[in-house]
Write a structure and sequence with these properties.
The protein is of the alpha+beta class. 17% of the residues lie in helices and 37% in strands. Strands 11, 12, 13, 15 and 18 form a five-stranded antiparallel β-sheet that branches. A five-stranded mixed β-sheet has the order 14-20-19-16-17, with no helix packed on it.
Length: 490
């Protein structure tokens, strides 16, 4: 079952000679649940930044924003479910100091299958419509096998006095639509449903593990690993909170696993989130006792070479590791560098850390040869960073001399970082160099620029040449293919 998370962000700014124009800034989270014996359902939560919406006075001194949301689920070209609603924001009396967000939640009953979900959003007060987004949603709950719903990250919940269409297990939840936890956030609250444990055992209990895992290393965070036992049944609810005040900055997955009585994995589910916690650094205890005798790093006895090797790790480091590396390479502590290098790779590839390093070093040499410039080596280039972090793309489109366009290239990944059908767009403003910069990606956590097409074609017309700041798409002329190649990789 795929965990679908999409962030739709449109934030457009005027040039110095023009006033700022508001454009809706929505965030979408999609979660999928089963109802044993009945039809599964997909639940959407869309949050809108209040400051991005246009408010109008509907009564003296009373203002509100109104957003139209159109949702279409289709399969094999046939519409399976449809919704069109107008969502009102909370009423305010002062529009000069807007803050926070307003949210819409909807539920769609859909049988098992893969669907294309299209979402169209229009600010009814301004008339501005965002580009329609299309997202693949998979509903897959085997009838006679254990399974886990998607994991809902939420801010708060309360017992439902009057159950709504989105009430779950007797509770109403306020979803955390954008999974970012800043310095002020100390709790990770989550909800998941566990299905069909009775297909394994007639009675008794089964084990559920839940833990936080680093996205970069796929390693469990040792202090954030928990378990709980449940009575066997058709459906169980895991509703819990993890204290994350000591979780370092980085990208993570919250993982939930069902296990049998001998601790064998039955099924699992995960949810991505980001943490910003500058006060917590890399834990030196993780490496201070590491024995490097007779390991591949014991032969790395030239400190300058080892410094360079550690710099090579930057694209695949967590934020805490990256910050630690900055100070480590400035030191003269050869042993600690060796311990760090060994711990880094043994954490990521415990069965073959030396081979993992050799494979990565081979990739570094490849990007240094392919993407290096006169200013910096390839591993420090944007293309080198993406290649080392996410691997070789499945498809590459290169357009070094398209009419009216700066040289650009589009990398397409079928699956990357648990996300499907993702792209990176690189552009160079100098045909004589190899200096391509990342100008847009739809991968969570990477540069996101809805006006990237205008940048590509600004060589002739300048950014926003036609319809000004409201324009996100380039009006195709003869020989211009960037938008089509992005939407239809080939």
């Amino acid at each position: 079952m795929k965990k679908v998370f999409a962030t739709l962000m449109i934030m457009l700014f005027a040039t110095a000679a023009m006033a700022q124009v508001k454009m809706l800034k929505p965030y979408l989270s999609t979660t999928v649940y089963d109802v044993p014996g009945l039809t599964p359902f997909v639940e959407n939560a869309i949050a809108f930044d209040c400051r991005s919406a246009v408010y109008k006075e509907f009564e003296p001194g009373q203002f509100k924003a109104t957003v139209e949301i159109t949702t279409i689920f289709s399969k094999d070209g046939k519409v399976c479910d449809f919704s069109k609603i107008a969502l009102d924001s909370p009423v305010v009396t002062d529009t000069s100091n807007l803050d926070g967000a307003f949210i819409d939640q909807q539920r769609f009953s859909l049988p098992n299958g893969e669907y294309q979900m299209e979402i169209g959003i229009t600010d009814l007060n301004s008339g501005e419509a965002l580009p329609t987004e299309s997202i693949t949603v998979e509903v897959n709950f085997p009838e006679n096998a254990p399974a886990i719903s998607d994991i809902l990250l939420f801010d708060s919940y309360s017992k439902a006095e009057q159950p709504s269409a989105c009430t779950k297990s007797g509770y109403d939840f306020l979803p955390r639509v954008y999974p970012f936890y800043g310095l002020a956030d100390s709790k990770l609250k989550f909800y998941a449903e566990l299905y069909n444990s009775d297909k394994i055992y007639d009675e008794g209990k089964f084990l559920v593990n839940y833990y936080i895992e680093s996205r970069e290393s796929s390693a469990k965070m040792s202090e954030f690993n928990f378990n709980k036992r449940f009575d066997v049944g058709k459906a169980n609810v895991l509703l819990n909170t993890i204290d994350i005040k000591d979780l370092p900055s980085g990208n993570y997955y919250l993982v939930v696993e069902m296990r049998d009585r001998t601790n064998n994995l039955i099924c699992s589910q995960s949810a991505f989130f980001q943490r910003s916690n500058p006060g917590v650094g890399y834990d030196m205890d993780d490496i201070s006792g590491v024995d490097i005798s007779n390991t591949f790093v014991s032969k790395m006895d030239d400190i300058d070479t080892l410094r360079q090797f550690i710099k090579y790790l930057d694209p695949v480091c967590s934020e805490a590791e990256r910050n630690y590396c900055v100070s480590l390479v400035k030191s003269d502590d050869l042993k600690t560098m060796q311990q760090f290098m060994f711990n880094f790779w043994s954490t990521r590839a415990p069965l073959a850390p030396a081979k993992a390093w050799e494979d990565y070093l081979g990739a570094v040499k490849r990007v240094n040869m392919s993407f290096g410039t006169t200013s910096y080596p390839g591993y420090r280039s944007d293309r080198g960073y993406v290649f080392l972090k996410y691997g070789q793309p499945d498809q590459i489109v290169e357009r070094p001399s398209e009419p009216n366009a700066y040289p650009y290239t589009i990398w397409h990944y079928y699956v990357v970082a648990n996300q499907h059908n993702k792209r990176f767009v690189f552009m160079s403003k100098d045909e004589s160099t190899n200096d391509y910069h990342l100008i847009h990606s739809d991968v969570i956590g990477e540069v996101n620029n809805p006006r990237w097409e205008l940048e590509v074609y600004s060589r002739v017309y300048g950014v926003g040449y036609d319809q000004g700041v409201d324009q996100t798409k380039y009006e195709n002329m003869w020989g211009s293919h960037a938008g089509d190649l992005y939407d239809n990789p080939r």
